[in-house]
Amino acid sequence: MDKEGDNVSPSLSNINSLYLSSCNLTKIPGALRYLDNVVYLDLSSNKINGVIPSWVWENWKDQLISLNLSNNMFTILEKSPSLVHMPQLELLDLSFNRLEGNIPVPVTNVEAILDYSNNNFSSIEPDFGKYVTNSIYLDLSKNKLNGHLPSSICSAKQLDMLDLSYNNFSGSVPSCLIESGELSTLKLRENQLHGMLPENIQEGGMFQTIDLNGNQFEGKLPRSLSNCQDLVLLDVGNNWIVDSFPSWLGVLPQLRVPILSSNQFNGTIRNTKGDGPSINNFTSLQILDLASNNFCGNLPKGWFNELKAMMGNGNDQGQVLGHATNFSTRFYQDTVSITFKGLELSFTKMLSTFKAIDFSNNSFDGPIPESIGRLVSLHGLNLSHNNFAGQIPSQFSNFSQLEALDLSWNKLSGEIPQDLTSLTSLEWLDLSYNNLSGRIPRGNQFLTFSNGSFEGNVGLCGLPLSKQCSTPPSISPSAASPPESNSLWQDKLGAILLFAFVGLGFGVGFALSLVLRLRWRIEGWLCKH
Fold first, then answer.
1. Which segments does the entry list as coiled coil (predicted)?
2. At 235, is the secondary structure helix, strand, or coil?
3. Are the C-beta atoms of residues 45 and 21 closer than 8 Å to each other?
């Protein structure tokens, strides 16, 4: 190519693969349009802006296998085609640009990955589903698409992953989209979808991830979700679902992350065997979010004994949650949003080693079960804004990996266990607005917490609060010498006097020491009797 990029050397005319990713290009080299045999073209992660020229579609439409224009600054497609016949296309990636208008839908004869995410597209073919029948991966997330989801989407029988999240889709979800159970990943997060969730998911459903967070779904959770034996993540947070605690989900062997927060779930959490241990109940859980619902009653003592995955890391090396597509180069990562360290955080790369429980903003009461202390691999525990009473279990000192603990706005009483100072991973603590009393423990992480961690407990004293304690701090047995008895102290003092009186003369001094020792023994006898 020459300096202007408008001419091409005859020796380059046979190029079929061109990878120009991350080359700081500011425009598409004009000479590319004269290459006749391009099959793979990668211009991703550059600084190219403006128009995607129509010749990109027209010149190579019969032969192009992979086209990656992602992570640039394109704003529009020339001629803005709605349908593009590209029979050999396996990958089209236009993600992370500024593209507007119609989404170009390639009509292919092979399995294809189509990624249009993170743009400003506002429209797509009304029945786009019938044109992507060979697609296995379709990502339309984070655009400005609206309208109803067409039932034609169910025509895409090969589809493995569908992400329509962060758009303005409205109406109900086509029942075939969920009931067929053919998808492994369905993400409809943050739209305006409403209505009842489809009830009849087929047995053997392939779902691994279902994310419906931030819509207006109502009614109950479909009991047929228990047919999805491969389900790993279920997120129905921020909807209008009215139901009891779905204990029936406990039979799913792979379920790691159920997010039920900000709905109208109600009632108590019950064991299948009362307070005794249940059988194979939620054994793979790593995150459980029940925050901001209407749950009530005591937490069953034995229920936490079944959360085996939270009791230790075992051989888990920290895999990223997600799954591979049929294309080995594409790995789809699950995203989870939870409250952690007092902030609403979105984990776009969730490791299987991260463990957290959030029961905040409910009406749970009674004591906090000591059995929670067995969940030694917890990183976050939030029981705030409930009616828990009684003392903070000393078993919390078992949480060697705990980073955030929130017990605020409850009715907890008694002293803060001194053993909690052993939690050297603890970065965030909130015990405010309870009925706690006594001296705030000192040492390790407790030296770093501010006044806000303990305010609203009138009985607490000591740093970091301004209220000082009336008694000196207790000294642990290991740091203090054993107390001496009165008789032992008297014996020592007598010996000291004996030597002191020697200076007055041995006889007089000896006599005085005997008199004083006899007087102390008589006084001691009188105190006892």
1. none
2. strand
3. yes
Specify whether the CB–CB gap between 336 and 322 falls below 8 A.
no
> Are 394 and 452 contained in the same domain?
yes
Q: How far is CA 296 from CA 264, 267, 270, 338, in A?
A: 12, 6, 11, 21
**pLDDT value at residue 70:** 97
Q: By C-alpha distance, which of 240, 329, 238 is closest to 44?
A: 329
What is the distance between the alpha carbons of residues 384 and 432, in angstroms, rounded to a whole number?
Answer: 9
Q: Is residue 106 within 8 Å of residue 114, measured between CB atoms? A: yes
Q: Are 276 and 304 within 8 A, CB to CB? A: no
| Predicted pLDDT of residue 281 | 83
> CB–CB of 189/259 below 8 Å?
no
| Residues of the chain falling short of pLDDT 50 | 1-5, 274-278, 328, 475-529
233 belongs to a structural domain: no
User: What pLDDT sits at residue 517?
Assistant: 47
Q: What is the dihedral of CA 201, 203, 205, 210, to 10 degrees?
A: 40
Q: Which two tokens mark 161?
A: 């992953």
SS3 state at 106:
strand
Domain, as residue range, for 522: 486-528
Alpha-carbon distance of 28 to 458, in angstroms, equals 68
Q: Is the dihedral of CA 144, 348, 234, 247 positive or negative?
A: negative
